[in-house]
Structures are given as C-alpha cells and as structure tokens.
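Possible regression after last week's pipeline update?

I re-ran a chain I had predicted before the update to compare outputs. Posting the input and the new output here so someone can diff against the archived version. Not blocking, just want to make sure nothing changed silently.
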Amino acid sequence: MSISRAITSKLQSYFLPSFLDVVNESYMHNVPKGSETHFKVLIVSEKFVGKPLIKRHREVNTVLAEELEGGVHALSIVAKTPSQWESDPSFVKSPPCLGGSKL
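New output (post-update):
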C-alpha cells in the first residue's frame, strides 16, 4: 500500500472525517520523482471539537506515527471542526520549497 493510501485509511478510520484531503507534495521538493515524503492533510472531524489546535495536531501525529517514523519527512496539518470548516472552507497553499534548491 502506498504511503498516501495508508495515511488516508488511518485518518478515515480513526477520525471519521466529514472532509479529508491528503496531498502528496513531494513533487514540490528536491526528491526523486514518485517520492512520498512530503504531505499536506486537510481534515475536518467532530473529534476536534473542544480541542486546541496543538492537541489536534498531536492526535493526527499519533495516528500516523508509523508513517512519520518511516519515509514521511514532512507533514503539514490543517485540522478543523465542522463549524470551522463551514465558516471558512479554505486553507493556505504550501509555498515552494527552497531547501536543497540550486539557487
């Protein structure tokens, strides 16, 4: 199973999200073609209600501990409650990577 599918499966199973988008952003970085090392996760779940942002991120990191200990180098997390998502269904686009570039 690909890392992207494993991330999606684990987050779906644990958080039962009303919205989930897992984006492999590895192509934006100086890694070999086809890599699965840099991800952005946008997740909306009732499980985040009443929890501060840091606890939401920690919970996602805990669920994905195996992937983070393995090949995943970077994980950007946008974790919203359903009401937050309803009032603002957006997220910031990732900037281009400057690390390892040949400027």
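Follow-up from reviewer: compared with the archived run. The longest strand covers residues 38-44. Marking as no regression found.
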